[in-house]
Amino acid sequence: MHTIVEGYFKLLKVLIALFLAIMVVLVFGNVVLRYGFNSGITVSEEVSRWLFVWLTFLGAIIALREHGHLGVDMLVRRLPNVGKRACLIVSQLLMLYATWLLLQGSWQQTLINWDVAAPASGLSTGWFYGVGIVFGISSGLILLADLYRAVTGKLSDEELVMVKESEEQEELEALQHELAERDRREARLASSATHGETRP
Amino acid sequence: MTIIIFVGSLLCTMAIGMPIAYALLISGIALMVYMDMFDAQIVAQNIINGADSFPLLAVPFFMLAGEIMNTGGLSKRIVDVALALVGHVKGGLGYVAILAACILSALSGSAVADAAALSALLVPMMVQAGHSKPLSGGLIAASGVIGPVIPPSIGFVIFGVVGGVSITKLFLAGLVPGILIGLGLAFAWWWEVRKETIVSPPKKSGREVLRALREGVWALVLPFIIIFGLKFGVFTPTEAAVVAAVYSLFVALFVYRELKLSELFAVFVTSAKTTAVVMLLVAAALVSAWLITVSEIATAVVDLLEPLHDSPTMLLIAIMVLVVIVGTAMDMTPTILILTPILMPVVKAAGIDPVYFGVLFIVNNSIGLITPPVGTVLNVVAGVSKISMEDLMKGVWPFLLAQLVVLFLMVMFPQLVMWPAKWLGG
Amino acid sequence: ANAQDIQERTIRWGHLNDPGNPISQGVAKFAEIVAAKSGDKLKIREFPSSQLGNEMQQQAALRGGTQEMFTGAPTSLVGTVKDFGLLDLPFTFSSGEQARALVDGPFGKLLFSKLPEKGLVGLAYWDLGFRNVTNSKHPIAKVDDFGGLKLRVIANPVYIDTFKALGANPVPMNFAEVYTALEQKAVDGQENPFAIVLSAKLFEVQKYLSITNHTYTTNIVLMSKKFWDKLSPTEQKILQQAAAESLEYQRQFSRSYSEKALEQLKTNGMQVNEVSQPERERMQKETRSVTEKILAQYDPELVKSFQNELEQFGK
Ligand code: NA
Ligand code: NA
Questions:
Q1: Inter-chain residue contact A109 with C60, CB threshold 8 Å
Q2: Which residues contact residue C307 at a Cβ distance below 8 angstroms, ignoring those fewer than 6 apart?
Q3: Which chain C positions have a beta carbon within 8 Å of B234's beta carbon?
Q4: pLDDT per residue as tens digits for the range C69-110
Q5: Peptide bond before residue B134 is cis, with ω within 30 degrees of 0
Q6: Number of other CB atoms surrounding residue A96 within 10 Å
Q7: Which of A41, B121, B171, C141 stands 20 to 30 A from B305 (CA)?
Q8: What is the 3-class SS of A8-60, one letter each residue?
Q9: What span, in angstroms and rounded, lies between the C-alpha atoms of A87 and A73?
């Protein structure tokens, strides 16, 4: 079970990186063709928009699991743990409800649009709305798992707040990590330098 | 009543720590129930359509470009150039920070990335030179604010898409206000350090300056490619973003060789993930935006502000105060998404130029990045430079004040924004 | 009409055009008639300028029942009912009368009969007039003048292939981005009816207007079938009557607006040239391969009735 879940999220990461790379190729390719060869890729605009939509929702699944979505934690941070837990459970129930609606609506729209061909690529527009089904099921399961852990008290105190205040928090954390590494390295170097020092 | 339902449900769900994207969905659902038009398809259609926009493709491309520039050594070269040029004057490192921030802004769309790179490189040097640490950190944080004002800017892209304003025009109009903020900061810095006796780094020899320029030239030409490309219609903002990404990828891989092919996958995943977080917010906001369009909220707000229609300046001041207050507590993207659909009809009704308004709005939102309690850039600088938030807030206020003065001047004298915008965009 | 059969309802009607242009005027007339006939119980709320999304999005909303009405070009229906694509064929109609007679006749009714199974009800074929080419480089008087021009077109194979065949470089783009793209000279030109060139202020960024009359743009008044099925027979009748009664007004308005638009475009400094009949025939010849390729994709019976009616009304 664990490996399947990990494998699924690995797959999502590969897909979003791949989609971004294809988008770069399509849009940049179009600029090059327009100036270099006075032509263009007809499906470039449409296909890159669709990949973008898929990237958005697949990436949002990953962010939901990593509790990386933006929120305001000013108030909840000040609450005692009981209060934090209560807020979290209420918020998860509401999120589940919104996800349920999103799933239901995407299902209906996917069926309705299954026989509609997209203007440039001719692909079924059902694929376009289908991302809502993938997002709805995946994020619904993540929310259920989180809710289970919240109700049964399996969350650490840290995990009781599940939002970040800046979209670039992750980059920031990576950077801080990197700086700490650098500091350690420099400290090591400095201490070895002092040790090697012979003059007073 | 409709507006109370919308704002009330949004604030309540945000207060209990729900991600803002979901809070927007819940407030959209609340509106839907209240307006008696409940249908799950409204949620699904609008959130999915919300992410379906060619102009918004600029967001992942600019994210990618920024990510590559920091990993690939472009940012570092720019700081070196600024050091070589203005490092030696009195309090020179402060001007280095401002100049480097202006150039970095022209390469990336993100204040956080700029401030992180600058504080990592410059705060230690400034402290070593004898400047106060809080003041140095405050200046760096305030310089980060220039990032979203000088193009490219993700803030302008999102505002342009949601408000229906030309992104190219916004980009070109943001250039001079960004530089004005830089000048304002330079003045404040000069004022703060005028009595200090600090030894600046020695003047660089002509050869050293030349070397820094030669190293940095690959990074320095990119802003020109973007600005001229947009001005002369070589490409659309989305295409400019992809050109920036491909160009910086090329430089990082083959010229500076600081980005390894093996790191590329991680760079793409990080950019895609950051994009997804921003875009889910954008998409969710369009659910409530659709319901706001269909309801009478916009008309109600226009009516509410009716008395101010005859005085665009008063109206602008009222809006700017509102945005400053909202900006103390909320990050830039959600503020743009939530306020734009409500404010645009008012702005248009009062006959205010949407591009001019967009510039003021984004400048104001950027200032929000350094106002406590929620000031993302403050957090970054405090974290990277290891300054306590309390000290940093003391250090930042002269610069915050300078920025508010510049904003006020732009409200009082629209020509400050509009003349250069006409000239550049013309 | 029986008053109990009419309920208080608000009908949201979206389209892509700016207020004041012939589509918007048609909506206003329709709303006026519906209000009068229903004793103000049925209300139309207009959402112009793509406020409710692009054409594909609004159409999906109609099919799902979250929006009641939408008006757009037949092009937007091609993905759903392919047969509407025949109305988009280049250099097919020689006059507005011919196009209007065709859509009002058996062929138009046949197309409408295919909509209900897709969750849509067709109420009327409105007018926007012939499409013409504008650009910032030079007048288009003959086929060769298309050479190398970057033209914005609707993202649809008919338009893309047509302008490729004429020698231009078609760039598919969303209408919302056209003004800026022209202003910044990312593209040289575009093609639209006079009414749109005026209402979208394209004359500010385009110098030459060449009357190619390459495609006749009808605009189809669509209603959500889910909504339609909820209506009482009385309400349905009111809406049908309004569609019929507003039709002539809308077409008349469109014609006079087109003429006035052309004059205004001239006053605003656009250089207008008429493409001569022999040159237009040459353009038709250049695009024949496109037309034939597309016709081959349709049911031969349908194509035959289309061509028969074309000929019959062309006289
Ligand atoms: Na920038
Ligand atoms: Na703030």
A1: yes
A2: none
A3: 186
A4: 999 999 889 888 989 999 999 999 989 999 999 999 999 999
A5: no
A6: 17
A7: B171
A8: HHHHHHHHHHHHHHHHHHHHHHHHHHHHHHCCCCCCHHHHHHHHHHHHHHHHH
A9: 11
Q: Tell me chain A's radius of gyration from C-alpha atoms.
A: 24
Q: Which of B380, B396, B294, B393 is nearest to B120 (CA)?
A: B380
Residue B61, both tokens? 């491309």
β partners of residue C151? C170, C189
Backbone angles phi, psi at B198, to 5 degrees: -125, 135
Dihedral pair phi/psi, residue C153, rounded to 5°: -130, 165
- Residue B235 sits at the vertex; the CA angle it makes with B65 and B49, to the nearest 5 degrees, is 75
Amino acid identity of residue A187, one-letter, is A
User: Which DSSP category does C296 fall into?
Assistant: T
How far apart (Å, rounded) are the C-alpha atoms in residues C278 and C286? Answer: 13
What CA–CA distance (Å, rounded) separates B69 from B219? 9
Gap from CA of A69 to ligand 1 centroid (Å): 23
**Are the beta carbons of A102 and B25 separated by less than 8 Å?**
yes
Instruction: List, in order, residues 6 or more apart from B145 with CB less than 8 Å away.
Output: B111, B181, B366, B367, B369, B370, B377, B403
Would you give per-residue pLDDT tens digits along chain B (426 residues)? Answer: 777 888 899 889 989 999 989 998 999 999 999 988 899 999 999 999 988 888 888 888 988 888 888 788 888 888 888 888 887 888 888 998 899 889 888 877 677 777 877 888 888 888 888 888 999 999 999 998 898 899 888 889 889 988 888 888 898 899 899 999 999 999 999 998 887 777 777 788 888 889 989 988 988 888 888 888 877 778 888 888 899 899 999 999 999 988 888 889 999 999 899 889 888 988 888 888 888 888 877 777 777 777 877 888 889 998 999 899 888 877 788 888 888 888 888 888 888 999 999 999 999 999 998 887 777 788 788 877 888 878 888 899 999 999 999 999 999 988 888 888 777 765
Task: For chain A, list the contacting chains (3+ Cβ pairs, <8 Å).
Answer: B, C
Looking at the DSSP assignment, which residues form a beta bridge with residue C125?
C220
DSSP 8-state symbol, C119: T
Q: Which residue has the tokens 């949620």?
A: B43
Which pLDDT value is given to residue A194? 46
- Residue closest to B49 by CA, chosen among C53, C179, C234: C53
Q: What is the Å distance from ligand 2's center to A163 Cα?
A: 17
Question: For the CA atoms of chain B, what is the radius of gyration?
Answer: 22
Could you tell me which of B260, B74, B66 has the C-alpha nearest to residue B154?
A: B66
- Measured between its terminal Cα atoms, the distance across chain B in Å is 44
Distance CA(C183)–CA(B231), nearest Å, equals: 10
Buried b (16+ CB within 10 A) or exposed e, C214-239: bbbbbbbbbbbbbbbeebeebbbebb
- The owner of tokens 């410059």 is B122
Interface contact C79-A45, CB threshold 8 A: no
State both tokens at B362. Answer: 């984004």
Q: Which of A40, A108, A116 sits opposite C80 (nearest CB)?
A: A116
Helix, strand, coil tally for chain A in percent (to 5) = 75, 0, 20
Q: At what angle do helices B40-50 and B20-34 cross, to 10 degrees?
A: 140
C189-193 and C120-135 as β-strands: parallel, antiparallel, unpaired? antiparallel
User: pTM of the prediction?
Assistant: 0.85
Measured in Å, residue A71 CA sits from the centre of ligand 2 at: 13
Tokens standing for residue A99: 């996800």
Taking the C-alpha atoms of residue B219 and residue B216, their distance in angstroms, rounded to an integer, is 5
Dihedral Cα B46, B49, B55, B60, nearest 10 deg: 100
State the best of B45, B47, B295 to mutate against chain C, taking most chain C CBs within 10 Å.
B45
